[in-house]
Amino acid sequence: MATDSRLDEVLERLDAGLSGAVERLRTFLRIPSISTDPAFAADVRAAANWLRDELADLGFDAAVMDTPGHPMVVARTPAGEGRSLLFYGHYDVQPVDPLELWNRPPFDPAVEDTPNGPVIRGRGAADDKGQLMTFVEACRAWKAVHGALPPGLILLFEGEEESGSTNLQPFLRENAGMLRADLALICDTNMYSDGRPAITTQLRGLLGEEIVVRAADRDLHSGSFGGLAANPIQVLVNALATVKDAEGRVTLPGFYDGAPELTDELRADWQALGFDPAEFLSRVGLHEPIGEKGRTGLEMVWNRPTFEINGIAGGYAGEGFKTVLPAEARAKVSCRLVGTQDTDAIREALRAHVRAHVPADCTVEFHAHGNSQASVMDTSDPAFAAAKAALTAEWGREAAFIGAGGSIPVAGDFKRLLGMDTMLIGFGRDDDRIHSPNEKYDVQSFAKGARSWARILAALA
Amino acid sequence: MATDSRLDEVLERLDAGLSGAVERLRTFLRIPSISTDPAFAADVRAAANWLRDELADLGFDAAVMDTPGHPMVVARTPAGEGRSLLFYGHYDVQPVDPLELWNRPPFDPAVEDTPNGPVIRGRGAADDKGQLMTFVEACRAWKAVHGALPPGLILLFEGEEESGSTNLQPFLRENAGMLRADLALICDTNMYSDGRPAITTQLRGLLGEEIVVRAADRDLHSGSFGGLAANPIQVLVNALATVKDAEGRVTLPGFYDGAPELTDELRADWQALGFDPAEFLSRVGLHEPIGEKGRTGLEMVWNRPTFEINGIAGGYAGEGFKTVLPAEARAKVSCRLVGTQDTDAIREALRAHVRAHVPADCTVEFHAHGNSQASVMDTSDPAFAAAKAALTAEWGREAAFIGAGGSIPVAGDFKRLLGMDTMLIGFGRDDDRIHSPNEKYDVQSFAKGARSWARILAALA
Prior knowledge:
The structure is a homodimer. Chain A is α+β, with helices and mostly antiparallel strands. The first copy, chain A, is built from 15 helices and 18 strands. In chain A, strands 1, 2, 3, 6, 7, 8, 15, 16 and 17 form a nine-stranded mixed β-sheet that branches. Chain A is globular.
């Protein structure tokens, strides 16, 4: 009961300090830490420095640690008697284009009232600055009440999550001794639905690939060369149109090796969630699932692999018209992967498929972007049940074990390189518009997220 | 023989007056008549006025006639007994950027010696001021010898050819009575090869179309929606990949209706040109024709219709990677058309093909860009044989009837609006760099071009 009353104090402290916490988040969001664009490198570092200073002020032993790319922020508290915990988040954000679709400057965040309550609007509000700050604010309130930070904490904040996490694996390897804990916590996921908290227990992997097809050594006039000279856009289009069949299945040889069917137990759990694909799609102006035939909606997004074209460019696409046969065309494609699908084998199969479509007069070049295996957690660890109870208490609704269609490769890296399982607990909403214009994070997610972490810290302490 | 001796006098007069003719061309070239840039509107008009004054001095009934855009110059001689002829050229020029790639100011033309003989260097030297002046200089010499200009001539010089010829069709319609002649002559094309004169007797038409496929009402994260939501890039790619089959033939129903096979005569003529597709392609870093199977290289570029993707854009194609399912994807495509292919019917077939690939959750929008029928001249008109003989006599090599892969819409306009066939006779070279920095026109093209017109005028008189 002593613990419970201290917890209540921490929760009260969080409630009382909410407006200050929102102001701190706004300050953090003003730093345009776009990791994929080299023009923003200094801003990425500025965001790392800001985080380190915040954490050091709170009493963490905090440092910005360089990598060959953007730096890591690492902060620790002294070891305690209980379970040690590594909390991971990322302080970098996605690019903001198309800028004209934002209804306010993406790096001038504000609290806006909406019919669903107040939101914090700005790039990174949900992904992941707002989410990671829920944990930092829980620590701040904890310290105010307990006089000290929770023991045995390691905080790790990455600056390259949105640009492929190029340096994460080497960093984990080189600093394994410092980073290894009993369990990892990641706050970069959504609740199952508004008001229904969740712990994500499986994540799809990701394989990204850029394909560049080149033909003539210059742009050609289609009047002079059309009908005779190779058109790299057509070559690329022909290759990309045949990766999937009419049933939505990927045709690459061996693609489905290692893609498991659901266990009966998980199938029943997911069924109970009552997911309605048409309703889900209607939120973004769609209504018909277009994926593999014969699969439920949740299977499609959580337990089935995909192939998607994420970007394509070639020739003249501006105002008016230009009858050009371009010298090159390029596409960015990616696969979401599940179970034990082998990213290297699939990448090779994809490249072989494209090469088979490239005629003698064209060349093709491939660039790998991102490569992460899927992750499946061991939910028999009692920490999962304890966290589930804490979340259920905070939100007043039964917390769910769910899957995630996105890739959080770091969870797989923690398992493989540091031997830790991960609890993925996040407070994002499906309408947060992450990676899109007008990204937001609900003030409720932010406030109750911090309260949730306070409860989980208390439960695991 | 009387005619022949007067022709010889005209040719001698041209030879004797060459340096004066070059000086007049240089004066004309100094006027920066860039039609696409409103900043040069006064210069475009100055070029029109200069031409009118030259023609009036020569004895033409010449006028600058306003349009809603840049003006036309029209000049006439009294009707005669023989065939009436409309000569068309354009006095506007392309922009000059990138200026730093010019080795002299583009509007300070000069005669330069080169390993292939002297050239006149400057914007518009070949396209089209130098070419149109070959006809004007032939008229000047004719008048000096005969005491009068050739009868039954109409000269029409346009000032918007390089900016879309927006006002040409209305002008032709409104002034049809004044402009209609027995035959049109256009000097805006190349010789078949250096030293081999040619009359272009067929031109491909053009149909341009922009296709926009839209899915969700915003860009989506492929982790959250991949496998469930429609991807407009994939939809567009699937539609574009199936417009042509593996043999390079367009699959749209009715596409080849009106696309004629070569006559035996034209097939033999083209065969005699000795076109080497591999050599032609090697100039741009390619070597293998990729068009329809079973067609010669010249057929592919002159007598076969095409489907080309000129531009495509969708999703994220910048630096790095973004796992987005974009809200929309767009492509610009065009067909080169031959014979009597029906542009409207083909546009509808293309749109129907695309629509058939668009799933329930996507919409598609089409925008027409450009629509010109192919032109095929009736070479049984004895004027063609007469002009061929005249060109053969001047150049000492058999003149060829050739095709052109590009579109010169004015020739189709003359046919459709004024009921005239056109002889396209030009003296440009493949290395004239029209539309590019360091445009030039060979002094030989200029001198022998004028002599060629003198011979053709004599033959058609």
